[in-house]
Design goal:
The complex is a heterodimer of chains A (334) and B (336).
Chain A lengths: L1 E6 L7 H10 L6 E6 L21 H14 L11 H13 L2 H12 L2 H7 L3 H9 L1 H17 L4 H6 L2 H5 L5 H35 L3 H34 L5 H25 L9 H13 L9 H24 L7
Antiparallel strand pairs in A: 1-2
Helix pairs in contact in A: 2-10, 3-7, 4-5, 4-10, 6-11, 6-13, 7-10, 7-11, 7-12, 10-11, 11-12, 11-13, 11-14, 13-14
Chain B lengths: L4 E12 L2 E7 L2 E3 L2 E5 L6 H8 L7 E6 L2 E2 L4 H7 E4 L11 H10 L5 H14 L15 H13 L5 E5 L7 H16 L4 E5 L3 H7 L2 E6 L2 E7 H5 L4 E7 L2 H10 L4 E4 L2 E5 L5 H12 L2 E8 L3 H12 L6 H6 L1 H8 L10
Parallel strand pairs in B: 4-9, 4-10, 7-8, 8-9
Antiparallel strand pairs in B: 1-2, 1-3, 1-5, 5-6, 10-11, 12-14, 12-15, 13-14
Helix pairs in contact in B: 3-4, 3-5, 4-5, 9-10
The chains are: A mainly alpha (334), B alpha/beta (336).
Amino acid sequence: MTDEATIDASTPVTGQSRMDVAWGSESSDVATVAKPVAQTGQVFEQIYVPWQGELNPRWMRNWAIFRHHVLGIVRKGHRPWGVPTKLVLIFVLIASMTDVALTLLFAIVGEPGLYEAWGVGRNNLYGHILGFFPRNMLYYPLVAALLVGGVISEDRSNGTSALYFSRPINRFDYVGMKYLAVATIQAFIIIGTLFLYYFVDILAMGRGWAWMLDTMPLFLTAVFCAILLVVTYTSIGLALSSVSRGKFFPGIALLAVLLGTKTLAAIVEGLFDRSILYLISPYDSVAHVGQALLGTNVIYSHPWIWSLASVIAINAISLYVLSVRVSSMEVTRE
Amino acid sequence: MSKDLVIETNELTKSYGPHVALDRLSIQVEHGATGLLGPNGAGKSTFFKTILGLIQATSGEGKVLGHDIRTEGLDIRSKIGYMPEYDALDDNMDAIHQVRYSGELLGMNPVVAMSRAHTAMEYVGLGELRYRPISSFSTGMKQATKLACSIIHDPQLIIADEPSNGLDAESRQAMLTTLSNMVNSGNRSVLMASHLMDDVEQVCQNIVLLHKGKLAAQGRIEDLKAIDREIEIHVWGKSDELEQALGKEGLEVRREGRMFRIRHDGDHTTHRILKCAAETGAQIRRMHEYEASLEDLFIVIMERFGYGVKSSDDLLASPVEARKVDAPESMGGSGA
């Protein structure tokens, strides 16, 4: 785009005109001088684009938090779980299905004796959820420790708590969705494989309605015990995560609480033949309740109702610590 | 609340036990860009938390975009964009996904949030870098990403806490330009807390000054600068006589060699200076109004006026009276 100036004989001679003529003169006495007015090139033009959309209500925000944590296990673009965590989850998922595989194998082979050892029954349902070795010694506490490690503590250390609390998200929703997400991942492994175990038995052995009606109460009780286990591990784990700024301490502390209390109680039982100290062990308290509800052999000498009270107390204390710590999280600085 | 006010508080007080963090703050923030200034411990962060509805005020009331800060915190946080001072990003995420997630946390559906995240990243100048992990970003890029997170839903008010903190000159300029564009082109409001007076002066038309939880001053920067208005003259010959004459005339003079700065004392100040020069025979080679910087203004208000200065109107109406009423006794005031 140009702005043209015409210069002829009547134009007063000024410095500007002389200069223009010098640069723009032709053979005639009328010269046309092009004056460029175009702006210098712009690599980046900043244009504000408004948005007229509507924001969805509370449930959508909560779903976003839940989805962010759960989908992060399998998809990029959500919460970045570490590779070791993902590998352990895959390993434990496969390892938790050993009883499923063996049930299927022996059902296909048609060996009743071996099938009885692995098929659905009171003891095997208990064992799938609350068996100590290897599930509650190696698998489930490790999964819980890896999951809870940085879920809240990293928001504290990264400052990402500001990302949540400067949005229309209250602290109950924040911690509730994180709790639900961690519990869901654990439940997928523990309860998901329990469902698989039960339904593989139905399909492989061609069970009928009578068998299902017969075993359904046991199965649902096992599901209840699994929920109790997941809730207890998650409550303790998130409480530890909320008092920390890293992910190492909560994980190690959870393992120490779960395995340390059991070891201590086992030593005391060995020395004094008293099982009462198992009340401080979250795993043993849940296991005791599970044994009583499922009707398997009870290995503790104190009443199971005490263990139930212990489970409730452990969860209550953990949730209290969690709520106090989350309510003190800052949006401006930590 | 009047139409142009985005934030309005009335006697807002927040106490933590015996410590009063906000002391009867009555602040009015108009549409446009406003700087929130104050030394450490002035109450800026507490003020932000209170107006975001994150903590309950001990007494007083306030409204942000027409919503009550005591009962409508969620509504307020839906309509504002908050850019925190410190790191608020997950280093292991890609920038685009981080911005998208911040939109989802506001209630945007994932597809819309992703679309807006692209727009916001383009706007802050990170369009080509949006798929890079945040851990690989410089401080300036992280600040820009935080800004993108705060503007993804096109908020009416952006609250930026130290937006140029830790930035080099180029990144700082880009950040300030972006905030200015938000106000000028986007017609949005910005409340910006900063320790850097130049930054505030570049972006904002208004300021709010806090000191120890109290309001030290508020109003248009241009108006407030009039508090510290001076006329600078360069004198040739008979400088001493001119200085004495100006003193007798009742003008307050600061002198350094041949350069005088005379406090502006009404419309006739220039005329009175010239009269004195004519009487003494001093030549005035140069005369111009000396414009105080915002930093000068900040120091003047904080150190000379002391506590209790209510607003620029109070100061401008009668600076002498304001000083008498508000300044501590040690500064020549009544200590009221």
